[in-house]
């Protein structure tokens, strides 16, 4: 029977509402347990490898199905106890049901698997974790919705835009959670409405809060669909009372039909236009639209290791592509002769330039541009860096960027990645362009309790 199903691939071996027992054999990148019946995968929330569970099938598609746990017949010793169900069902913390050591192993395997898929044989070190892997996020971006006539904040149920109200985000700095709740309460008291995606009516879309880990400076941003934020001055007054750490209160407009949270237009209602935080002995200003690493504790480890692995010298010329507000550039500028950053967000580059000045760094230069285009330009201009750092968003590098790096012939190419799938894809081209991987790939747990993995990979140019 099983054999027949494997041959006739179209056969779907399960039906909706069917109940069955199975062993969980894997976890997906979304943090769901995988059970296979006659090789047909069923994805199940809150089920971890090694467990035998009884499930009910909730949805059947052509190549896979979804199920829900009815009972757990055999529990894994890796299961973490007393975890908030909301954290798991919403995807705030989809791996929170796994003990932390098992999370770190899962991430190491995740990286290994991605490289296997592209037929590259690499060594992956054990994941470097955090001592206290909760309450680490310095930033929240929380959707706002009207539920039963009340303005609520929370998190979307996985794979949907259905809001599940919650006060405890588990992985966020509790002071950031407190800022979100205080803002929600003020909005409720003053009778502001939540924006509704369906009808395109209402005012408030998101609340963003960010807090400096070292500075304790707090920024609150209210993102509206409307041009005006009603009661702006009164909100500012009440937030100052409720949040003594508040340094900056900003209104951001996003009136586009988009999943992007922040719009481009900001108005400072009260306080400063930005907050400060410190990282590796340097001071950084961070504006509302600028990217800033969400886990300040592991970020220091990440940058220190990346710099160490690059083996920087005082004579080096360095490029830092996807430089954000200049955190990597400025944390290593003291160790090299000259460093160039490139970043596409104009405000982030303005922050980076301020940061260079405030920290008395005069050997760093930042360019506002698309990183691939600028790398091609620098290659054409004859720039010859000894070391290139890249730290791209999840979609990874482009083929033209990799070719441009190759043309510049750096000895060392350090790739910091937040997505092992695109890293592995890019590694294939980087190796083909005359580099080899130096030592082991190092995963670092920047995002405990989630399935995200950060890695450092060092490529060295092979002598011609
Ligand atoms: N290295 C920085 C930022 C890394 S995040 C840090 O560690 O803080 C990735 C950055 O790439 C973001 O700042 C984002 O705005 C920028 N970015 C995204 N697409 C880009 C592109 N095509 N060209 C240049 N920068 C880009």
Layout of helices and strands:
Layout (H helix, E strand, L loop, with lengths): L1 H6 L11 E9 L5 E5 L2 E5 L7 E9 L4 E10 L10 H6 L9 H18 L21 E9 L2 E7 L6 E3 L8 H16 L14 E8 L6 E7 L7 H11 L3 E8 L11 E7 L3 E5 L2 E5 L9 H15 L6 E5 L5 H6 L5 E6 L2 H13 L5 E5 L2 H11 L5 E4 L8 H10 L3 E6 L2 H13 L2 E3 L4 E3 L9 E8 L3
Parallel strand pairs: 3-5, 10-11, 15-16, 15-18, 16-17, 18-19
Antiparallel strand pairs: 1-2, 1-4, 2-3, 4-5, 6-7, 6-9, 7-8, 9-10, 11-12, 13-14, 19-22, 20-22, 21-22
Report on this structure.
By secondary structure, the protein is of the alpha+beta class. The chain folds into three domains: 2-79, Beta Barrel (OB fold (Dihydrolipoamide Acetyltransferase, E2P)), CATH 2.40.50.140; 139-279, Beta Barrel (OB fold (Dihydrolipoamide Acetyltransferase, E2P)), CATH 2.40.50.1070; 295-461, Rossmann fold (3-Layer(aba) Sandwich), CATH 3.40.50. 27% of the residues lie in helices and 30% in strands. The protein has helices at residues 2-7, 85-90, 100-117, 174-189, 232-242, 296-310, 327-332, 346-358, 371-381, 399-408, 420-432, and strands at 19-27, 33-37, 40-44, 52-60, 65-74, 139-147, 150-156, 163-165, 204-211, 218-224, 246-253, 265-271, 275-279, 282-286, 317-321, 338-343, 364-368, 387-390, 412-417, 435-437, 442-444, 454-461. Strands 15, 16, 17, 18, 19, 20, 21 and 22 form an eight-stranded mixed beta sheet that branches. A seven-stranded mixed beta sheet has the order 8-7-6-9-10-11-12, covered by helices on one side. A five-stranded mixed barrel has the order 1-2-3-5-4. A hairpin with a 6-residue loop joins strand 9 and strand 10. Helix 3 (100-117) runs parallel beside helix 11 and helix 4 packs across helix 5. The model is unreliable at 1-5 (pLDDT under 50). The structure holds S-adenosyl-L-homocysteine.
């Amino acid at each position: 029977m099983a054999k027949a199903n494997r041959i006739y691939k179209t056969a779907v071996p399960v039906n909706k509402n069917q109940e069955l027992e199975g062993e969980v054999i894997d976890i997906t990148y979304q943090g769901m347990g995988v059970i296979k019946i006659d090789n047909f995968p069923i994805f199940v929330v809150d089920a971890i490898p090694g467990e035998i569970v009884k499930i009910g099938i909730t949805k059947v598609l052509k190549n896979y199905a979804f199920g829900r746990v009815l009972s757990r017949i055999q529990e894994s010793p890796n299961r973490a106890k007393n975890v908030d169900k909301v954290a798991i069902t919403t995807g705030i913390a989809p791996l929170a049901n796994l003990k932390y050591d098992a999370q770190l192993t899962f991430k190491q395997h995740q990286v290994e698997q991605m490289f296997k898929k592209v037929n590259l044989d690499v060594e992956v070190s054990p994941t470097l974790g955090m001592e206290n892997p909760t309450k680490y996020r310095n930033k929240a971006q929380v959707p706002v919705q009207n539920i039963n006539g009340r303005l609520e904040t929370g998190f979307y149920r996985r794979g949907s835009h259905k809001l599940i109200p919650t006060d405890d985000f588990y992985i966020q700095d509790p002071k950031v959670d407190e800022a979100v709740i205080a803002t929600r309460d003020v909005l409720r008291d003053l009778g502001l409405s939540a924006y509704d995606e369906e009808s395109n009516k209402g005012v408030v879309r998101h609340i963003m809060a960010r807090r400096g880990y070292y500075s304790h400076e707090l920024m609150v941003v209210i993102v509206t669909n409307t041009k005006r934020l009603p009661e702006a001055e009164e909100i500012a007054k009440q937030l100052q009372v409720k949040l003594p750490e508040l340094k900056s209160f900003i209104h951001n407009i996003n009136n586009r039909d988009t999943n992007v949270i922040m719009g481009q237009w900001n108005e400072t209602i009260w306080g400063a236009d930005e907050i400060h935080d410190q990282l590796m002995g340097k001071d950084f200003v961070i504006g509302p639209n600028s990217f800033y690493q969400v886990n300040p504790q592991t970020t220091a480890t990440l940058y220190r290791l990346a710099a160490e692995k690059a083996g920087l010298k005082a004579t080096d010329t360095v490029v830092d592509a996807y430089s954000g507000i200049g955190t990597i550039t400025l944390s290593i500028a003291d160790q090299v002769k000259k460093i160039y950053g490139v970043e596409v967000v104009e405000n982030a580059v303005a922050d980076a330039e301020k940061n260079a000045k405030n920290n008395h760094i005069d050997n760093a230069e930042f360019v506002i541009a698309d990183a691939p285009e600028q790398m091609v330009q620098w290659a054409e201009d004859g720039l010859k860096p000894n070391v290139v750092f890249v730290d791209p968003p999840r979609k990874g590098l482009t083929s033209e960027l990799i070719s441009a790096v190759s043309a510049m012939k750096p000895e060392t190419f350090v790739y910091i990645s937040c997505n092992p799938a695109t890293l592995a894809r890019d590694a294939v081209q980087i190796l083909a362009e005359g580099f080899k991987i130096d030592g082991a790939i190092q995963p670092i747990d920047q995002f405990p309790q989630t399935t995200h993995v950060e890695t450092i990979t060092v490529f060295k140019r092979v002598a011609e």
